[in-house]
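Quiz preparation item.
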């Protein structure tokens, strides 16, 4: 038996409970978690903004050590340090055949599986976004397991599984920021901080961080922001003032709110690019009129998992870490136990801090 944070129902408080995990079957891997990041997507799953079968063990950003492998698993072995990939590509659907593995139609099929049982009553448990990282140990499909490159601290490596892949991909794959361009990042949480660092790595000059909290300025500047704007109704005007009244070349929205998406759009120059990373609810409606779409010539695009291929991008990110260009530890503002996840959710809602990291 292992301890886990169980979501008994949508909207219900998380419960710390003991669960029974099976031995890994064919094509499966059992992992002892070293750390798991608390992502806004976990909050969205718990409150029903995003839907998964429940009861479930959430947590999708994790790293740990292989305990055992099932028949047919050859790319990792017991004792190996690994990163969890919550959205493995099937390789055969239409998106995968186009090389767009981040849009795989079958990536989340595993979330409907029963992967464990509650020890107290034997009730079925689902694995959240495939990997159930809010637990001391988990059993996942081998396709969800990536070997950890050398030279990366195991606990900090958890952040590579979501926040860093998303932020890095938003800059390098979706917006394709070029050296010398200007960037604005809306939302200074774990993904936003990763995006700021990635904009700096890409060679952006002016990098504007935007958040509702004045207290996050120091975090943002440490990540690479050259300027900091406290969100208000004048945000777009302030960003234009910082860029010769033109607006930034690229705006990345990491919040998922209609007003923030609209402001990010208005903050980009004529012909600029706005990339939406934040996951909003269906009630968040963004409107544009036909004339402004024509006149401004801007590009607005969604960005799923950073438009990344984890198998290819994790080694690249690891090289940035080893070279000192990417600081994983700087994304973490709180290290907590399983029991601290509800408070971490509350801090997200209140707009406090960067990434909370569960340490096992």
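Solution:
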């Amino acid at each position: 038996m292992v301890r886990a944070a169980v979501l008994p129902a949508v909207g219900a408080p998380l419960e710390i409970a003991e669960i029974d995990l099976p031995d890994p079957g064919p094509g499966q891997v059992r992992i002892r978690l070293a750390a798991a990041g608390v992502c806004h997507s976990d909050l969205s799953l718990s409150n029903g903004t995003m839907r998964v079968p429940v009861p479930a063990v959430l947590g999708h950003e994790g790293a740990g050590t292989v305990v055992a492998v099932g028949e047919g698993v050859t790319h990792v072995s017991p004792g190996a340090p690994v990163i969890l990939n919550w959205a493995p590509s099937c390789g055969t659907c239409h998106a995968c055949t186009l090389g767009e593995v981040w849009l795989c139609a079958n990536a989340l099929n595993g979330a409907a599986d029963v992967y464990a049982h509650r020890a107290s009553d034997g009730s079925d448990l689902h694995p959240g976004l495939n990997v159930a990282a809010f637990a001391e140990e988990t059993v996942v499909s081998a396709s969800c397991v990536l070997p950890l490159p050398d030279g990366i601290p195991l606990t900090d490596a958890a952040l590579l599984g979501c926040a860093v892949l998303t932020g890095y991909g938003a800059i390098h794959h979706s917006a394709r920021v070029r050296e010398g361009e200007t960037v604005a990042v809306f939302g200074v949480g774990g993904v936003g901080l990763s995006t700021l660092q990635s904009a700096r790595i890409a060679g952006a000059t002016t990098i504007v961080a935007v958040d509702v909290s004045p207290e996050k300025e120091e975090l943002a500047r440490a990540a690479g922001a050259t300027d900091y704007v406290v969100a208000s109704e004048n945000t777009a005007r302030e960003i234009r003032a910082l860029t010769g009244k033109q607006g930034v070349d690229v705006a990345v929205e990491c919040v998922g709110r209609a007003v923030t998406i609209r402001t990010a759009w208005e903050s980009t120059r004529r012909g600029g690019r706005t990339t939406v990373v934040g996951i909003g609810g269906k009630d968040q409606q963004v409107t544009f009129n036909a004339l402004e779409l024509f006149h401004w010539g801007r590009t607005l695009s969604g960005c799923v998992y950073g438009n990344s291929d984890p198998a290819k991008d994790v080694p690249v990110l690891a090289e940035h870490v080893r070279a000192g260009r990417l600081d994983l530890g700087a994304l973490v503002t709180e290290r907590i136990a399983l029991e601290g996840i509800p408070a971490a959710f509350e801090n997200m809602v209140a707009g406090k801090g960067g990434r909370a990291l569960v340490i096992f």
